[in-house]
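Lab notebook, design round three. We kept the backbone fixed and only want residue identities now. Task for the bench partner: fill in a sequence for the structure below.
Input structure tokens:
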């Protein structure tokens, strides 16, 4: 790696394998930002195990200012479990899922009460929205939730969104297929709601090129593309809350793929939202060149994979270069318990290259893998494309990842 002069501070810094723009927020125009999703993590909202109402008050006041300027804001909040722990006198996070759920049940009411009190000072109505994996994996529920969000924003109500920890066993146990924390939840909301900006408020100043505690660690102010090298560096950058920096990068990748800007900044700083919009604080991620429509977003991000289909080289070329549907003749093997209409990963050499809604069950597809249409028809009595092109999203091409 060579050395390059930083355009922001005139210092010489070693160039990285990932693309980093040192021109502060190039092309970012806060005046064009109309819809914002803000995610506040537990580390931001709590202090000493209790809700930090001073910080919450500052964040709410800044949201109220944006609201008065005609911008739409959706708030994804953590803190329910921590708040419940405080009220129950529990010092360390319980390992038992049921006890975590009990803490969430106690803490969620206190969390919303604090928000309602703070927002009411600014004359703003709020709505509580608790979500689980099923609200995203079932497309009809997914569309209904997003329609509700649109109605709330139209009525000038701030949606306050949280993962429904009281009933979400899979999420609490960190076995979620759709979202594993509120970083990814906020990215899903930003993606489907066509937000202009996703702001992740955390306990660090932004994304660093290594662990920020290490000597010489540099804050990356602007990121053009999230590459494997950057993800590897983030994995060593320390963790915050449940998600950690790696999940924040995943969230950033998800949201930028739908055309949103993504910012990451320290949430406890004074006037942090205004500073981010003025490009004075945090790390800014550019929207991706390749963007998904609503249906593609659901297939790529909002639906859990029910299995995988390994394909051969010819099929991979047909999907990637010709925009073709996936046929049985190109299938090498199928794994999982999926049925017709489920979303599956399409792999080559074990690596995901696409995702799509399948037209066969796993059992039926195994019986016709590698067969031509007329052979498949003799075996099953019918023959369809394995995955229709309109129900398929290329992962490699779009820079999405799982």
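Proposed sequence:
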């Amino acid at each position: 790696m060579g050395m390059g002069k930083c355009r922001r501070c005139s210092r010489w810094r070693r160039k990285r394998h990932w693309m980093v723009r040192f021109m502060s927020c190039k092309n970012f125009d806060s005046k064009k930002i109309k819809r914002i999703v803000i995610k506040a993590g537990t580390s931001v909202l709590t202090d000493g195990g209790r809700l930090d109402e001073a910080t919450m008050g500052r964040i709410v006041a800044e949201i109220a200012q944006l609201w008065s300027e005609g911008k739409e804001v959706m708030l994804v909040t953590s803190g329910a479990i921590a708040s419940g722990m405080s009220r129950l006198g529990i010092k360390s996070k319980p390992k038992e899922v049921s006890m975590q759920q009990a803490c969430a049940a106690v803490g969620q009411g206190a969390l919303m009460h604090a928000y309602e009190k703070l927002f009411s000072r600014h004359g703003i109505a709020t709505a509580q929205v608790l979500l689980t994996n099923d609200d995203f994996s079932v497309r009809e529920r997914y569309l209904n939730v997003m329609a509700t969000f649109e109605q709330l924003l139209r009525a000038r109500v701030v949606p306050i969104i949280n993962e429904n920890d009281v009933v979400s066993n899979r999420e609490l146990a960190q076995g979620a297929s759709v979202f594993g924390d509120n970083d990814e939840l906020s990215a899903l909301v930003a993606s489907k709601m066509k937000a202009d900006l996703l702001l992740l408020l955390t306990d660090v100043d932004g994304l660093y090129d290594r662990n920020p505690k290490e000597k010489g660690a540099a804050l990356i102010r602007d990121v053009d593309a999230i590459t494997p090298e950057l993800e590897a560096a983030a994995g060593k950058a320390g963790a915050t809350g449940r998600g950690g920096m790696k999940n924040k990068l995943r969230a950033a990748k998800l949201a930028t793929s739908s055309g949103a800007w993504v910012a990451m900044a320290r949430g406890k700083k004074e006037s942090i939202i205004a500073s981010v919009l003025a490009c004075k604080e945090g790390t800014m991620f550019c929207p991706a060149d390749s963007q998904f429509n609503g249906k593609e977003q659901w297939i790529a991000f909002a639906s859990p994979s029910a299995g995988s289909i390994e394909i051969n080289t010819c099929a991979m070329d047909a999907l990637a270069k010709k925009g073709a549907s996936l046929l049985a003749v190109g299938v090498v093997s199928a794994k999982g318990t999926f049925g017709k209409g489920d979303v599956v990963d399409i792999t080559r050499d074990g690596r995901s290259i696409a995702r799509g809604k399948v037209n066969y069950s796993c059992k039926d597809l195994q019986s016709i893998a590698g067969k031509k249409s007329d052979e498949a028809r003799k075996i099953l009595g019918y023959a369809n494309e394995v995955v229709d092109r309109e129900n398929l999203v290329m992962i490699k091409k779009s820079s999405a990842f799982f």
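Keep this in mind before ordering anything: The two ends are 28 Å apart (CA to CA).
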